[in-house]
Write a structure and sequence with these properties.
single chain, about 375 residues, alpha/beta, 16 strands, binds flavin-adenine dinucleotide, 8-stranded mixed β-sheet, globular, 10 helices
């Protein structure tokens, strides 16, 4: 278990006040929003129930270019140019047109946080009344409010639909100390009827897990079995629900970013780069408000449209997610082999990356430049 660094007892002082921006959630989505506000002069507060980087929320695999585009390459642990896919009928290797990297969660969050200039406090967010957010340390008011709290969508207006009825997948993994060279996935119904299993090496640690698209299907037993099959220790569990349906990206005065808006891609359950992508987009809209270039209302409307414009791509991937478990395994194995043709992989992965392309991160000047511009001004 990670050491709990969150403030306790007397250190847990009351929290209150008015802020320009309140970002709830200090993981990928929330920290990306804050990064875009660096040097704006805004009073920005980020809150999370844990310290920054304290609790990894994923296997931490991402297209490498995203880490470079954000200047986070220092957090990279291992890089892969090939995807190894196992089915009960054999193994297929896809040569990727772009590489995939695993990274260190704590380091990545620290680096991303350093790119912003927001204040940070540990607090558990309970809910909201208008522009007042209720936390276990008190109420905080802000002109701009961001919910980057994950699938629970804590600041949403309506009662949240809970699993297993909600459109959620479930994922669980173990993090044993072990080495590996390959990025591997298993599409094998003996582990999970609808979903896939994975093994991501990360510099002396393996992230071995199972994801089920059907929230009713429990994944602990297959996760343990996969780890045992791979002869790694069944230690350090990490799991969560994963949204596989995009949701409204704004409600009242709140911006929803990442898993809280269902910004995790169906089929692959890749939600880090999309949380970063929509976080940057949200941060840019908020910045325009703070600089007097648009109203809060316009920012909410523009961000909602931006998110909505991606909905059909999420919808297509959801269809794929629903179809794959119905294809007979032998046929699926053959199809995966045929799709493995270099040009086809390049085409498919090119389109896949374009859903949230790394170039998007380059559209704003690097944070250091923004900060020095602000100081000079
Ligand atoms: C087992 C597993 C493996 C995964 N592997 C990958 C992968 O390799 N690559 C990939 O792209 N995606 C992966 N995903 C999906 C990915 O983790 C999520 O899509 C991504 O983390 C979403 O980022 P986020 O910033 O929206 O939310 P999160 O990363 O979930 O962050 C939410 C933050 O809010 C905080 N929080 C939550 N509730 C409260 C509260 N009430 N008060 C205060 N703070 C709160 C949390 O502490 C956390 O810091 C995986 C998911 C799982 C479950």
């Amino acid at each position: 278990m990670p050491v709990r660094a969150t403030k306790r007892g007397a250190e847990r002082t009351p929290l209150s006040g008015d802020w320009d921006v309140l970002i709830c959630g200090a993981s990928f989505g929330g920290l990306a929003v804050a990064r875009e506000l660096a040097g704006s002069g805004a009073r920005t507060l980020i809150v999370d129930r844990y310290e920054i980087g304290e609790r990894a929320t994923s296997a931490c695999g991402i297209p490498t270019e995203w880490l470079h585009a954000l200047g986070l390459q220092e957090a990279i642990q291992q890089t892969f140019f090939e995807l190894v896919i196992h089915t009960p009928y054999g193994t297929t290797r896809w040569e990727l047109p772009w590489s995939f990297s695993t990274f260190d969660y704590r380091r990545m969050c620290e680096l991303l946080h350093q790119q912003g200039d927001a204040d940070f406090e540990t607090a558990k967010v309970h809910g909201r009344t208008g522009d007042v957010v209720h936390t276990d340390r008190g109420d905080v008011r802000a002109q701009l409010i961001v919910d980057a709290l994950g699938w629970r969508r804590v600041l949403g207006r309506a009662e949240n639909v809970q699993p297993p009825e909600a459109r959620l997948s479930r994922g669980l993994e173990v993090h044993p100390h072990a080495g590996g060279e390959e990025l591997e996935i298993w599409i094998d119904r003996s582990y999970v009827p609808a979903g896939y299993s994975w093994s991501f090496p990360a510099d002396g640690e393996m992230r071995v897990g199972v994801g089920s698209f059907d929230p009713r299907h429990h994944v602990k037993e297959p996760t343990v079995r996969l780890a045992e099959d791979l002869r790694v220790d069944v230690v350090r569990f990490q799991g969560n629900w994963i949204p596989h349906k995009i949701r409204r990206a704004t409600e009242d005065c709140v911006f929803f970013v990442g898993d809280s808006a269902g910004h995790c891609l169906p089929t692959t359950a890749e939600g880090i780069r999309t949380a970063l992508y929509f976080g940057l987009a949200c941060g840019r809209e908020c910045r325009a408000v703070l600089e007097g270039r648009q109203s809060t209302r316009d920012a909410l409307s523009r961000y909602a449209s931006f998110s909505r414009a991606h909905a059909w791509k999420f919808g297509c991937l959801l269809k794929v997610q629903q179809i794959v478990p119905r294809v007979p395994p032998a046929l699926l194995h053959r199809v995966l082999g045929l799709l493995g043709h270099r040009r086809l992989v390049a085409w498919a992965f090119g389109h896949y990356l374009a859903i949230a392309p790394p170039e998007f991160a380059l559209a704003s000047p690097p944070p250091t430049e923004r900060r020095s511009l602000a100081t000079a001004g």
